[in-house]
Amino acid sequence: MSKVKIKNAILNGSVIIPPSKSAAHRALLCSFLAGGGAVSPIIHSKDMQAMQQAISALKNDEKIVDCIESGNTLRFVIPVAAALGKRVTFVGFGRLPERPLETFLELLPKHNIKCTSNGKLPLSIEGQLAPGRYEIAGNISSQYISGLLFALPILDGDSEIVLTTKLESKPYIDLTIKVMGDFGVEIKETENGYFVKGNQQYKSRDYIVESDWSQAAFFLVGGAVGKEVSLKGLDMNSVQGDKAIVDILKEFGADIEIKENEIISRKAELKGIKIDVSDIPDTVPALAVAAAYANGKTEIIGGERLRFKESDRIESVVSNLKRLGADVTETADGMIINGGKKLKGAELLGYNDHRIVMAFSIAALFADGETIITEANSIDKTYPSFFEDYNRIGGQANVFGNRK
Question: CA triplet 55, 89, 82: central angle to 5 degrees?
């Protein structure tokens, strides 16, 4: 496993943010269900490889679907495979086999799918998914709901998704519905869920993938704490939930300027705030770094599902902040950070989690002395060129060791 050594530096320059993994995953799956059409641009990350090879497995009637470490791929493709009547076994590695699947294991057998699993991967399914009423909790993972939304329109009959709890991470579902709509499939939102008309057809088309707000968050924080970073290619009209990073950083006190096709984040004196991340959990590592350099108390709440990501992101963020010397307390659904304390370079754990490595590469820029972060290669999951972009605008990151 590789490590990265970070020296103190100031980010100052412009970055073209890569295409959105979330949008690309959805577009690739819709394109497959439509029977064709190019999806571009696509970055060569492990998560994109996972979706592409899962689609290939379904196309070629393979018996094994390897989702690598991609939760999106796994939870999107399971109901799609069931709707297509595939008899397959889903596998993965890293933390993916530990991530919960109980929702599908309880729900799919009620709709004509036999599931064989010990509660986690590997999972084998067989049968033909039946339309009907799908009752599902809204506060577990939006990926389950998105997976059903992709699958239900192609069934021979209408279906409804009924939410049994308050919906969290709704922007991710909004993105699913938006991309599906781009491929000609209609979903109707109801008072307590979604109505899905059956016998719909995805329409073939070429699709341009928008830039990724989740990745933009790291560089926006880097500009707000450091000097000035300009990000190009982002869509302020995007339905991606992580676009909220702009308003949250403004609430911190960051100097954010929005121009046509450009967002500029400049250094400013930041102050602590309270943030509910129930709709935007992926922004937490970046927001926690901003909080550590903000004066006063920041409270992050609503992040229970962070415990089931590539790492337990509450524990991993808190642990690394403490190693840097921050005043931080872990809570059940987030953390409390008393910011403004001078941080010191340290050896940090990457937790094989791309967002942890990227977030603490930003944090390390402004800590006294060098910082080393383990498992730097985990960025390959979503943003393999992160350190190239980081160094090009003034960062000093030296990746060493085996990156395989």
Answer: 65
